Amino acid sequence: MITPGPGFLLGRKEPGGGSIKQGNINTPPAEEGVGEAPGRGGGRWTAGGPTPTLSPRSPGPGGLAASRGPAMDRSSSYSRTGLHISSSENRGCWYYLKYFFLFVSLIQFLIILGLVLFMVYGNAHAGTEAHLEVTEKRADTLSGRLLNLGALNTNLSKELNITTRSREAIMQLLVGSRRDLDRINASYRQCQVDVNQHENNMKFVVAIVKSEEACRQQLAEHLRNCTAQIQALEEKAKTAQAVQETLKMACNKDKESLMAAKGLVESQFKACSAEKMSNFGEYQLVVGELQRVRDMCAAVDKEKLVSKMEQVWRESLLYKSLDSIALLYYNPEVEKVVHRCRELPRVMLDKVESLARELKVGIEQVARENTELKRQKEAGEKSLAACKEEKDKVLKETQERLQKVHEDCVKQARLALEEKVALQKEKDALKKELEEKKKELALTKGQLDINTATLETCIRTKAQGSTLLPRPPVPAKPAPLDLEALEEFKRRLMNTYQKASQPSGNPASG
Questions:
Q1: N or C: which terminus of the chain has fewer CB atoms within 10 Å of its end residue's CB?
Q2: pTM of the predicted model, to two decimals?
Q3: Who has greater pLDDT, 87 or 236?
């Protein structure tokens, strides 16, 4: 809730002016047309009284009409500057009615607003007095607090001066302490760096020793493997030589057997050739005889033969004599003789037929024998060709086997030689690596001795409170070390590392 004060003013926005003016709540509304011209005039209502004051820049009642009237002549210079006075001849009745209704509406609005404010705030004087009392009490309280703060400020100024002097002294002590602290921190950091470097060097040395032991074991293992491989390769070479000798003997035996088989096949081939020639001669003879018999048989015809024989018989003297002989007396012997003579052609024909059949059987037998000889000849030729092919195949396989055995022997010998050379190279490389590891170990031992001396110097300097001594330079080429001393150092170093790697909480074994 807003408490009304004695100087409570009501904000009012004048029409067309664009600003809020302050006025008393009890001030009656002013007449329209007197006051600040909207948008141009500098005149205003005074907050204290009802008498309006017109600003020298105000154009008067006509200025408002000029700024609002629609009948204003915009072509004149007075209308552009707003300094002219409109003539009453150009103003009609509606012009005054418009402003009359505007002023009436404004007065009604102000009356309603005053009634609303009076209803809301009620008695304004009582609220103003209460607010004034509260303000006076607050002012008294603030005055007391101001006095207290002044006294406190004086005391704080004195304490600040004392504190400033103490601060300067403390800052001097702090600067000195910081210098000491920086020096101590630098020495401590250097000691920490040396300790870390020493620990790293210990780890490096242990790693080098372990790698050297591993290299030695690997070298021994490689040497054993190389020896075993060399022995195995020698045994393989001996076995290969024995196999080669065995294969050579087998090949020689096979060669001898093949040569014997070749001689046998050649003798058989010669016999087959001679037999072929004899068979060919016999074949030609048989063919000639067969052709002659065929020619002879082709000329012989049974019916013709019978007819010719009968004709010959009839034309013969015996047939005529038998027919012409007159039998004086009957004699059975003579009849028999005549009958036999007449049967003689038929008997001869039977004999001829039997001879022809025998001849035909002989011809067929000769033809069969000829066919069998041809078949035997073809079989002999095929057997001879198969023997030749078998001979060539056996010779080729034997040569290929000998060539393969020779190539295998040469290849195994070359592989054995290459493996021997590779093992020798690997052995030399391992020896060289072992020498390099020994040199690195010697250099690391020298660096470790230098770091140990530097660490002892740092610890001794820190204990005495003196400045840190400069570190000795690292020698570029360390002197050669004794191998026995190096082995002793390795053993001591391994024991120290094993003790350091054991946890501190474990009790010592009794």
A1: C
A2: 0.26
A3: 236
